[in-house]
């Protein structure tokens, strides 16, 4: 689990941690949360700036190379580039002469196929922020030309990596780690605020949720919550949200997906956003799969389901593999306007078996297998709903449609009180 120090600063005072980083993190290790590594993300970014491609022309001596004129805010440089995914007008990451990138590459003035090049346009791999990339990093349109890249993408940060044992699922989130650090430092945790303004009708008018639990396994889904959000605009996330995800190695996709990933890493609670138009009849049936049913997944593959698998189905077909991965037949796209937001608690053993059976691992399955906090499921959904409206407009309908198994009801609303911030 990667933990961002600047992210933690939203929940507690991190000044004592910065003053004695190794000492405080050593105490965290002594409490069972082993700190495996500490990374200063700004290393290697000294001479990397945000630039804009003014022109892109074909290299006269190489079909696969381009000659780009790139504006740095101070001057226009000629860069020879082999990537194919950029065009004039794009904002990009430019490593200037003298830069020493995180991957060890030193940038020098060069000549490529008889054409001079005065820097390099960088990919996520070369910048050390991803394991693979399809070309150079294309930045949002509002990226400020001439400014250092590191603060813009959240690399002016300290990130430490934890080895979280299976019995410490509570530490698979920034809030969980912040809670542990607050205890060490004698501080009070600052709770994130949902600030959810409900409007429109009731979610119950749009969504019907049914739990189908066989008598031999009544608690494969302990609780399920669905909320309807109308009129959302799908677009790039605001800078602050992109920074948070980039700091821990997650690539921003769009505001809705980014919000669910952010809350996943904040609360440790997996969430899923369905395109409501693709959920037939607004119906959600949490049930065992029928043998031989097919389900296309978000990773582009298709699985053949087993009767032991738990699925989320609509009025006609499965739309998600419960606790593991969403379906490609109901995913949020640029055309999505209305959203069915899901938050649930699934049986850990069931998710683990399904994940292994289909050889599908995800950040969600990793957390469900280690159990999520039953008291925080609804709170995480409301936090996500507020952020979706904040970043994409629209309106969150009143309330949520909720169903519980008997055990789930006890865990979520019984003697255990609400999450203590």
Describe this structure as you would to a colleague.
This protein is α+β, with helices and mostly antiparallel strands. The protein is 23% helix and 28% strand. The chain is built from 11 helices and 24 strands. It has helices spanning 5-8, 15-19, 21-30, 149-152, 174-185, 239-247, 255-267, 348-358, 363-368, 377-392, 406-413, and strands at residues 2-4, 34-40, 48-58, 66-71, 76-81, 91-95, 110-112, 115-117, 120-121, 138-139, 158-163, 198-202, 208-211, 221-230, 271-275, 283-288, 294-296, 302-304, 310-313, 318-321, 325-326, 339-346, 395-398, 401-404. Strands 3, 4, 5, 6, 9 and 10 form a 6-stranded antiparallel sheet that branches. Strands 12, 14, 15, 22, 23 and 24 form a 6-stranded mixed sheet that branches. It has a 5-stranded mixed sheet with strand order 13-16-19-20-21. Helix 6 (239-247) crosses helix 7 and helix 7 (255-267) runs antiparallel to helix 10. It is globular. The two termini are 21 Å apart. 46% of the residues are buried. The model is unreliable at 415-421 (pLDDT under 50).
Number of helices: 11
How would you sum up the major sheet? 6 strands, antiparallel
Helix content: 10-25%
The chain-level mean pLDDT equals: 93
Category from helices, strands and their pairing = alpha+beta
The geometry reads as: globular
Radius of gyration: 23 Å
Residue fraction in strands: 25-35%
Distance between the termini: 21 Å
Q: What is the number of strand segments?
A: 24
Unreliable spans: 415-421
